[in-house]
Amino acid sequence: MTEPSQNHESDQIPCDPLSEINRRLADLGVEEEDLIERFTLGEGSGGQKINKTHSCVQLRHIGLNIDIRCQDSRSRSRNRLLARERLLEKIEELNQQHSLAKKRRRAAQRAKHRKPGAAAKKRHREAKTRHSRKKDLRRKPSQD
Q: Which domains does the chain have, with CATH numbers?
């Protein structure tokens, strides 16, 4: 008798890559209602087979205004998968840029409110002293 496997690697790997991509999109807050998916005629090289079938996938995210067009494969299902992968990559890239910009703004804000160090204070004092001497030279000589 064989025992059923408890933690098999194949149990953890999703058998449907589209469901995995949809799960990752859902983790980013993208819902299926936010997507408009259209299938259009292909174009370009590939001849009659490409030009007659509706295998080109146009995927649009309404909220983010991102358009993805994919006709890499002759298969519509493969193009659907590739279009969603590209959308996922694009959204992750936007999130990364947004978080990087947020970090930069926070760092700039901290630097703005940071008190000057000893070296900066010394430079400022020396600049004030130089300016004061320059003004002293503009005065008329005293008649002592």
A: 12-88 (3.30.160.20)
